Amino acid sequence: MVNFSYAHLPAYPLQQSLEMMKTADQSGFHAVYSVDETYWKDMWLLFAAAADKTKNIRMGPSVTHVILKDPTILAQQIATLDELTNGRADAVISFGNLIMLSQYGIKWQGTKPLARVKEAHQVMRTFLDTGVITHQGQFFNYSGLFTLARPVQKQIPLKMGAMGGPRSFQLAGEISDGIHHALGYSRENYDYVMENFKAGAKKAGRNWQDLDCAAWVVWVCSEDSKAAKETARIMVAFYLGAMPASQVERHGMKYSDLQPIFDAFGAGDVQKAVDLTSEEIGDKLSISGTPEECVAKLKKDILPTGINHVVAAITDPFLVKAFTGRDIPNCPDVIGQMKLIRDKVMPALK
After folding, report:
1. How far apart are CA 233 and CA 281, in angstroms?
2. Distance CA 123, CA 189 (A)
3. Is residue 60 within a helix (H) or strand (E), and if so which, with residue range?
4. Which pLDDT band holds residue 303 (cuts at 50, 70, 90)?
5. What contacts 24+ positions apart, CB below 8 Å, involve 123-132?
6. Are 308 and 212 in contact (CB under 8 A)?
7. CA quadruple 216, 220, 222, 225: dihedral positive or negative?
8. Are 185 and 297 a contacting pair, CB within 8 Å?
9. What is the per-residue pLDDT across 251-298, written as a single tens digit (0 to 9) for each?
């Protein structure tokens, strides 16, 4: 059984966001995740508002950041969310959006960000499980700190977001409850990710099959394949800069070929950057098309590698309009795509 979740971008009017979460809950989605970034509306308040309007769906950050935020604060927030949802909180951590860190003036280069994630995971696991911590580490120090924010779950799942080199995938297998790998679409990419994830789990004496192995993907499905692929192409343009060169190349592409797109974004010419993002790039770096086309790509390139969880970052005409001012006809909104996933994608993956 493949779990199917929804990755929400909090850019919508809040009541619409709540309706999306309610629909995901009613449609049998495993979880709704959200980015925890300053660019968008606050996901913690949004999830708090959704807690009593949903019954089964899990919710939490994918990802939240342990450079901008102290891990004990994150643990306090996650434990509070777990009480609000009666034991449905889930969390994915990482060192964060590197572009945003630069915008905050944070010099992360040479600071061992992966080592920081490892220590933050240890801090959060201890604080979530016990409610108290005394810790003297390389990055974090606490003396007798405690919290009354206590989770309902015996142990809240604490997973790692990982995109870069093999060590991040290995570390996720060693210490966390799973891996969420963003913006991967090719068989070569997921073979590489899972090979390293499994090696990390084996090193720690763990069974990787007991862990959450999630593919976080740009997703657009419509009965109109052309409309879906055009919607995906536009959104892919904005995600290209977040992909490490090695990851791009695991999709059969040359990173240097994308430089004109990066240059256009750097010059503030969004429309040119979108126009330079070809249909081929959009198709390679998304799950898009009819529901049947989306299922076929999952079955061919992603699920055979051991991935057991699809996290769909559903893109719709609202987001395209917000980012570019362009109108896309014949593509369903988020709720419409959720219903297509419920009716045509989930049954095909059972």
Report:
1. 7
2. 31
3. strand 58-65
4. very high
5. 123/71, 123/72, 123/75, 124/71, 124/72, 124/74, 124/75, 124/78, 124/91, 124/93, 124/158, 125/158, 127/71, 127/72, 127/75, 127/76, 128/75, 128/78, 128/79, 128/155, 128/156, 128/158, 129/155
6. yes
7. negative
8. yes
9. 999 999 999 999 999 999 999 999 999 999 999 999 999 999 999 999
Nearest to 62 by CA among 32, 25, 84: 32
Token pair 């142990």 in the structure block, residue? 155
Full-prediction pTM beyond 0.85? yes
Q: What is the CA radius of gyration of the chain?
A: 19
Mean pLDDT of 102-117: 91
Q: Do the Cβ atoms of 160 and 172 come closer than 8 Å? A: yes
Q: What is the DSSP string of 97-165?
A: -HHHHHHTT---TTS-HHHHHHHHHHHHHHHHHHSEEEEE-SS-EEEEEE-S---SSSS--EEEE--SS
Q: What's the chain's length in residues?
A: 350
Bond from prior residue into 345 cis (ω within 30 degrees of 0): no
Alpha carbon distance 141, 153 (integer Å): 26
Tell me the longest C-alpha to C-alpha distance in the chain: 58
The two structure tokens encoding residue 301: 């390139």
**Identity of residue 120:** A
